[in-house]
Amino acid sequence: MQHEVRDFYDTLAGRYRLIFDDWDVSIQRQANILGPLIESRLAKRALRILDCACGIGTQALGLAARGHLVTASDISFAELEQARSEARKRGLPIDCYTSDMTSLAEIPGGKFDAVIAMDNALPHLDFDQLAVGAEAIASKLRPGGLFMASIRDYDQLLVEKPAILPPAFYGPAGARRIVHQIWDWMSEDSYRMHLYISTESAPQWQTSHQTCLYHAIRRDALSGVLTQAGFRDLQWLHPPQSGFYQPIVLATLADESSLPPC
């Protein structure tokens, strides 16, 4: 992955929770959605789960609280430190490793029951990197293991090519914040996202700005990459079906006996 992605999240780490109305509520809400999705595909027991783009721990913390054995990794050391700190505060035994999701070589141990990459993490990769990342993710899964990811609805966004995501206002009077994004489309299928977080601090507001490149991945393109990497039984769930805020893909890693001959 590009150094720009690491620098983007290293800089954002201390303010990442501000993009949520209430981060703690989001952790619980997402765990209540994602946990059952994983458990229905695998088993209602303690599963070994790798969150390979964990950020500050939004999904890893919630899944660990459900009793799963969670390992967390991220390209950003600063965000990983936030996740590690939050896990300690909550008494959750999460192992954390700094690793690029196109490699995952730094993560020790055996195969996982599930690997997840949520919150539009995959579109940080261009198409070639995405194929490498899918192979790296497959290498960390046991046969029959589950991969789950969420991305924005780029099938629709590529039609609309929006330049701005409407601002969200959070917090009580006197301590409000405004979060919004500007999208500068650089090509047919990539854009530079400008993230602005404005916080109310008497007597004036203060604004931070970070920017990063994203690649608009269509669902059929991601499905093709996952199939090529050995995944089967792909299923796409849209927000009305799952209750999650982005489309989710679920895919099972085939065992060698079920793969077609070369």
What key attributes describe this structure?
4-stranded antiparallel beta sheet, globular, 262 residues, alpha/beta, 32% helix, Rossmann fold, 8 helices
Query: Roughly what percent helix?
Result: 25-40%
Q: What global shape is seen?
A: globular
* Cα-to-Cα separation, first versus last residue: 29 Å
Q: What's the SSE pattern? A: HHEHEHEEHEHEEEEHEHE
* Secondary structure: number of strands: 11
Main beta-sheet annotation: 7 strands, mixed
Task: Walk me through what this model shows.
This protein is of the alpha/beta class and 262 residues long. The protein has eight helices and eleven strands. The protein has two domains: 3-153 and 217-255, Vaccinia Virus protein VP39 (Rossmann fold); 156-215, N-terminal domain of TfIIb (Single Sheet), CATH 2.20.25. A seven-stranded mixed sheet has the order 3-2-1-4-5-11-10, with helices on both faces. The chain has a four-stranded antiparallel sheet with strand order 6-7-8-9. A hairpin with a 2-residue loop joins strand 8 and strand 9. Helix 2 (23-41) crosses helix 3 (58-65) and helix 5 (127-139) packs across helix 7 (219-228). It is globular and about 60 Å long.
